[in-house]
Structures are given as structure tokens and as C-alpha cells.
């Protein structure tokens, strides 16, 4: 599985628009092939930070997601609206829940 985390700092004048864009992007992404989860959250410890948590089946699914024109437009718009560049981290991950927590 591929795990992606992202964050962007919201500006007061664009806060509502950025939250709406984030929610739209997550909902659209969940419909893409290979998307296991895609969620947008407001950070409760830093209310101006919008956080994204994504789970994808494979690197190929992520590449396809990044190639979707709407994904590129989303990132460009977030860059334009934020006072800081968005941050994204991409990890190859293994679900070890059963190993640590017993059978789930």
C-alpha cells in the first residue's frame, strides 16, 4: 500500500474555499481506481492547517491519480490560495495491525 500525507496552511480570506476544495478533491479521488481511502481534515491543534491522509493500492494508482488534470489543478489552486507551499509525503506502507493488535 502507498500512504500519502499532505498539508497546506489556510489563509483567513480563503479558508472556506480551501476546505471546500479539499473536500471536493478527496471525494473525487475516492472514485479513482486504486484509491483505498482519501480524507481531508482540519488539524485540531493548528486550525489553519488542512491535512490530507490517503491510502492507495499501488504506485501505479498514485501515478494515475497525479496524472488526472483535476488533481494538478487542485494542487495549483491550493498553492495559489495558501501563504506557504503545500507539503506532501509519500510512503510505501505495510498494514501490521494484526501483528501488533492480534486478529482484527
UniProtKB/TrEMBL annotation:
Keyword annotations of the record: Monooxygenase, Oxidoreductase
PROSITE patterns: ABM (PS51725)
Keyword presence, Oxidoreductase: yes
Residue span, ABM domain: 2-91
Alphabetized GO MF terms: monooxygenase activity
UniProt keyword annotation of Oxidoreductase present: yes
A Pfam family of this chain: ABM
Name of the protein this chain belongs to: Quinol monooxygenase YgiN
Organism: Sphingopyxis panaciterrulae
Amino acid at each position: 500500500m502507498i500512504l500519502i500525507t499532505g498539508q497546506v496552511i489556510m489563509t483567513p480570506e480563503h479558508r472556506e474555499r480551501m476546505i471546500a476544495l479539499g473536500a471536493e478533491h478527496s471525494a473525487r479521488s475516492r472514485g479513482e481506481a486504486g484509491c483505498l481511502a482519501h480524507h481531508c481534515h482540519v488539524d485540531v491543534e493548528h486550525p489553519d492547517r488542512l491535512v490530507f491522509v490517503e491510502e492507495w493500492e499501488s504506485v501505479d494508482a498514485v501515478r494515475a491519480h497525479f496524472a488526472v488534470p483535476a488533481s494538478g489543478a487542485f494542487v495549483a489552486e491550493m498553492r495559489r490560495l495558501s501563504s506557504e507551499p503545500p507539503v506532501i509525503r509519500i510512503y510505501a506502507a505495510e498494514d501490521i495491525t494484526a501483528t501488533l493488535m492480534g486478529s482484527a
